[in-house]
């Protein structure tokens, strides 16, 4: 039989145990709250205590790649090395036989300096100066921008008071290939030019932070780290073909130097899509060594320079005349090599000849300024202006390149007597080479102008793909007009003085040259100085690619014939590169004279 006296101690034991368990449970709950539930808050609070520290976590700037995903610009890791001056000194490590030995501080400093490119005395001086400023100093910058190999060599020394901080650096794997397009960043990583600058929203990384607590010896205390992660930049994919770009850069450099030109460029456009497959220039910049390039070569003049287009505009005038029904390819005018018009305007051809009865096709073949001027009288000036703007002249080509220029045509009511005629053959107005190439897409695409593009997409770090918002295609001329103009331009290549030099066996081609006077910067023209242009496409019966070659002030050959060799080689490479099938039909020959 259990008595009251025997039950009482048992009850007290149970109660005591319950109290102990309750207290223990409270401690456990609090511990979970501190170390799990609200761990981040408590770590954050602790970072305000003594010996708190932080480290910046660098996001990696995005890459720039070509149409096939081949890298044009990327980031590599470099390393900044720091010392803990308060702990710098002799170190202990195993010798060659595996026995422990003490290595004196001067020897350690010399070993470090041999890798960083400093003397041992310089390394020791970094420590001495830091301690002189603060006897308890735990930080001193030793070297910046070390390579991965240097980093590994330093780690292998086993120096416990040597620390490293990775930092992304920009590299351009193919040097000057597309250098003017890609652009470059400064030593601080800030974008300064080209697509690096204009597309920074895609490429820019967001840095993060690692915060922690350190003990007096500088060692991070486990469990005190709080990380705000970095976010890498996106991948910018261009429409450029890297291999084709390289070839075109070599070609235009050779041609510009051979012709004694100040500058040269080649633009390759996929006719149906408007995608720019190459935009080569000479001189250009290697983004890895910007200072080696002249200031004018550090950006793309293709997109930032305006020029008079010269006779390449005669095709647009012809298209206007045909599309309005005012003329046909067989319509005629009588034109000598120099004439004074009733309003007092004077127009001269590039070569001396008697009065010829030119067809509209013949005016293009011989590139007669006088004949085209006379043909232009058969439509109103306002009509010609309207068609030029429909072709996109003056509207700009927004491909995402910074500070891109647009062409400019003065309103018709501002045209003087001379401008009335000059605009018909590409003077008295300015355009850009991309605008000109875009205008010709209306001829190669059955009358529909398609917008040029240089950027394929931006793929963000989270996988989101953003494509550029391009303007809608615009019908400029009828399909019949486009075919007629194309046939006329094919006859230009067939019947011109440079026909044999521009020909590519097996392919029908079409195009037009242009020679424009160069401004002297004072409202006039510079004597004997010209911009020369040749724009053409192939195959003529089914245009696949447009190639434009431009030279600034060639001196060996001052006319657009200077552009022919580069055009022929460029188009040959394009047709080969994209495996375009040869033509299977014969061209239609049109008469030059009536």
Give the averaged pLDDT, no decimals.
91
Strand residue percentage: 15-25%
Query: Which segments are poorly predicted (pLDDT under 50) over 5 or more consecutive residues?
Result: none
Shape: elongated
What is the name of the CATH class of the largest domain? Answer: Alpha Beta
Briefly note the CATH topology name of the largest domain: Beta-lactamase
Give the helix level as a range of percent.
25-40%
Q: The biggest beta sheet, please?
A: 7 strands, mixed
Structural class: alpha+beta
N→C terminal distance: 141 Å
Domain count: 3
Number of helices: 19
Q: Would you kindly provide a written description of the structure presented here, covering whatever features stand out?
A:
With 594 residues, the protein is of the alpha+beta class. It contains 19 helices and 25 strands. Strands 2, 3, 6, 7, 12, 20 and 21 form a seven-stranded mixed sheet that branches. Strand 2 and strand 3 form a beta hairpin. It starts with a helix and ends in a 17-residue tail after the last helix.
Helix-strand blueprint:
Layout (H helix, E strand, L loop, with lengths): L3 H34 L1 H8 L5 E6 L6 E2 L5 E13 L7 E4 L5 E4 L1 H12 L3 H14 L6 E7 L1 H8 L6 E10 L7 H4 L1 E2 L5 E3 H5 L1 H4 L4 E6 L12 E3 L6 E4 L3 H17 L4 E8 L5 E7 L18 H4 L9 H10 L8 E4 L2 E3 L5 E3 L7 E4 H6 L3 H8 L4 H10 L26 H6 L10 H12 L3 E2 L5 E5 L5 E2 L7 E2 L3 H17 L3 H4 L7 E10 L5 E14 L6 E8 L11 H14 L17
